[in-house]
Amino acid sequence: RVLVVVFTAFIIEHNGTTNYGPTRPDRSNLGLNPEACRSIWVNELIQQITHANHQQSQGIAQVHSAITELDRMTQQNAALVEESASAAASLSDQAQQLSSNVDRFKFG
């Protein structure tokens, strides 16, 4: 709806005074009346908006894909951090056991 309001305001503001209106040379030579020229102009604008909308949709899809990939990588990194923490805790336990075993062999 916002696009329609902006589009309508643009048409009202320019009231056929742009290069896309009835004064455009390539259209005036066709013998079209001002309403037909405006209709062609509106159609061109709609096509441009449709094209821009398509490009925007593709851009949004690419951003979504990138965010999905970042999320996957973040989850993978979190799993690796958990594995590393577990391995570090296990290594710490083993070091304590080794230290305890070495203490038995100390000669005083």
Molecular structure report:
With 108 residues, this protein is mainly α. It has helices spanning 2-14, 25-28, 34-104. The radius of gyration is 35 Å and the shape is rod-shaped. The relative contact order is 0.05. Residues 20-25 have low confidence and may be disordered.
Radius of gyration: 35 Å
Please provide the count of β strands: 0
The chain-level mean pLDDT equals 79
Element order: H for helix, E for strand: HHH
Overall geometry: rod-shaped
The helix tally amounts to 3
The low-confidence parts are 20-25
Task: Compute the separation of the termini in Å.
Answer: 89 Å
Give the helix/strand class. mainly alpha
Major beta-sheet overview: none
Beta-strand level of the residues, as a percent range?
under 5%
Q: Helix content range of the residues, please? A: over 70%
